[in-house]
Structures are given as structure tokens and as C-alpha cells.
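Re: the 497-residue chain
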Amino acid sequence: MVHLIFSEQKLREIKSDTVSTSVAIGFPLQSIEQCLRTNTPPPFQNLFAFLPVRSYGFRFILQADFEIPASRQDILNGNEWNEWLRDEMSQLLPDAYDSFNKLPTILKDIPSASSYFQSMDSIQALKYFLKFIPITNEVDKYFHGFIQRCLTELREKIKFPTRKDNSEEEIEWQLASKCVIVRDPFILKILSSNILSKYCGKYFLHEYLYDIDEKILLLLGMEKLNIHEIIKIIKKQFLIQKEANDGSIEQISQWLMCVNYCLEQMKYLDNNEDDTIELKELKIIPIENQTKLVSTNEMKIFFPDTKQINFTEVDEKFIRLLNDLPTVKLELFDYIERNHVDRLEEIKELLKKFGIIEKRHGEIYGLLIKPIFENESKWKTKESETLMMYLLYVYENIYQKGYQHNKDFDMDDFKTIVQIKCQNNEFYNPMKKTIHLSLTDTSDGTISKIFNTNNSTYMSDDYLNYIKPQEKNQWFMFLEKLGISEFFKIETILYSK
């Protein structure tokens, strides 16, 4: 039991005829063993004004000189004296915590105490004390302010056992504000206590307290693992690796699972803009044909699985084109599927939050083909076959399927940027240089009989290797829209005398 005794001078300021009074808090000890073994809370207790009044939702006994009506079934609300007593009680629980810290020593000094009491340690004493912490929705609203003040005082005092790496026996005691709740053994295996304390100044709550009501721990100032802390750790870890090019697939997948765990624990909404920005800035994405890790803030990145594309069938000839997109390494998904298959879909959803996108027609043209054709320094670095596939892709997947009127594609714009392979193995834009169909392309070959000049530029025959015979007319119609015709164009050239 813990008492608070008030000075006569202080009392007279509230109640002039009062010389002394005290408030006390008591904790029944007979139920310690049952409560700890069965992980159940102690029963509710009555509030006392020398005699029992009624239960106000406390599991400890609260005694004070409250003023009560004749029925003795309640304490008087709106009573200045009662409110003063209530407001002065906030030190009771913090003082009781100090007493519980001494409880194991006190019990060991009692010869008649049971063997269970004799063997009680400081963690068991703390766990029993925590079962008395009141939760607001259990307690009469008259005492809500009292609870909040008690919790505020306790947050500055109460300490919890935290775990150390590879040691169940070695314990450090830390304030609740320094403790993080993680119950997932897989995450604890990935994220060491040393890393958490080094970069965040936080510690993992010891597993001995996993059976404590999480609401109580959070009320006392503890936190779940925070996404911002994980991001901070990841940035620090990869900063150590200089160019961030040494991150193994195993390590990357583990960090992704940590991030996903945090998001689930924090229950962030999908549209939380601040968190989305942080994720997109995180250089943790491995992409094909590159050793350096990247972020989606730097570039658009695609999923590797072609089954996710909205195509009825992925043509073999376009695999080169699809591989030209910045794509998450397939190895990452293979690793997760082999080792953590139950988390694979979660990680795919997480990567969507990072900004990883699926390969769709509109995105492939808008994010790959168009930007490359618009930039001479970019398209000139591409292989001849790849540039040919760009044109064939637009023909088969945009023009033939009627997407040329889609808001993401404009034929008039496309013909000003497209590069056409010609028989001299050079690429030209049909709006800047007159390009004719190859003499072998024409329907009857009569042009070859009439014109056979080295002064004209002809489209390469290589494209026809990918065009079915029955589609030639449609192919020619497509080329005509780009300014390439089977008929010779007559150019007017002015000569000055």
C-alpha cells in the first residue's frame, strides 16, 4: 500500500476545517501467481471512502476521504474537495511502481512466503504491476484526468527489460520511449538490436513481456517498429556500402520484408503522401543489367514478370524491347518465392507502393519508346535490332489494335520522332528525309524497272522478316501514315541562275 499525506496548510486552502487527510492505493498480492500463470488481469476493486463505495473500474484499491451522499453508493460529482483529492492522487501510481521494484527483495525476506513468492524476480513484479494500469474505457469518466496524469508521470519513470542480440539472459532496462515492440521472430532475426540502437537509439522490448496487453505498453509511451526508423536504418546501411552496389538479393529482400512489416504495424493508408515520397526516395531496388541499386524517384521501374502485361501473348521478338525497360531483377522474386513464399504477394504489393509499375502498352510507349526517339543521344546508343522493334511494337500493339487514337499516343507526333532503318544501315526520320519503300517491297516490282537510282533512300528490307504476308497491305498503310510511300515522292528543287 502507498500513502500520500498532505500538509495542514495546503489542506486549509481547500477545506478550512480540515487538519489532516491522506489518500492510499493498495494492490492485492494473493492473486499474483494465478494472474501471471494464466495471463489474466486482477479483478476489479471497489473505491473506498473508509468504507467501500462501488467499483470505478480500477483493479487496485483506491482509498480517500471523499465526500459521499447518504446512500454511500457514489462520491459527489462537482464537489470541490473531491476534485482536489482526485487531482492530487496522480503521484500514487508512480510511487507504487517504486514499491513494486522492491517487491522481490521484500518477499524474499518473509520466511513464511510461498516458494513462488520467494522466487519472484523484477520482471515478474513489473508484469504484475502492469496488469493494474487502468485503461480509459474501463474507468469511470470522472477519473479519466487522473489516469492521464498518472500515465504522464509513469512515462518518465517506468523502465522495461530489452533484449540483446543472441542473449536471453543479458537484459538492459530502458524507458518506454526507448522501447520498440516487435513480436515477429523473422523481423527480429533480420534487424539486430545493435543496429536498432546504433542508428535509432531504440531497443527491442524483451520477449518476456510479449504477453502484456499491447494497449498498456503503447499508453506508457512504447512504439511499434516505425517505417521512418527502418528507412533511416536502410539509408545508413547502404551509405556504408558507398555506391550501394554490394547489397545482396538476400539482404534486399529482408529489408523489404522489414518495411512491409512496419507498414502493416503502423497501418498506413495507401494514400499517405509523406510515406510514399520516402519510399520512392529509397535506393533499394535492384534492376537487371546493373549493379547499382536505384530508387523509383530516379526512374520508372517495371515488374519483370511478363505474365503481368495485358497482352494475350507476348511475341518473342519483343522480349528484347521489354528487357530494355528498367526492370526489377527477377532474381529478387525468385529468392523470395524459394525462401519466403508466404510473403511474395505482400512484397509485390509493397513494390507497387514504391512506384514499381506493370508493363502495359501505354507505359511502354510513353516511358520507353517516345523518350528514346525524342533524344538523339539516346537512340543512337541503341542496337539496330532494338530500334526496329520499337517501330514494330507501335505497329502491332498500338496501330493494329486501334490504340492510335488513345490519348497517350499521337500518330502526328510519332512520325516526327520515329527513326527508320534504311538499306544503308543508317536511321532517318521520314519527316526530315524522304524515305521510299524498298524496291522489293512494292506490289508488282514495276518501280524497280522504272527507277534504279543511288540518289534515293530506301527503307530496309529487314522489317519484312517480321511482317506476315497477309498483313503487308496494312503494314504499308501504317508506313504511309508515317510519310513512307510505295510511290516515289517528287521533290521540288529550286536552282538559281
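The first strand starts at residue 2 and ends at 5.
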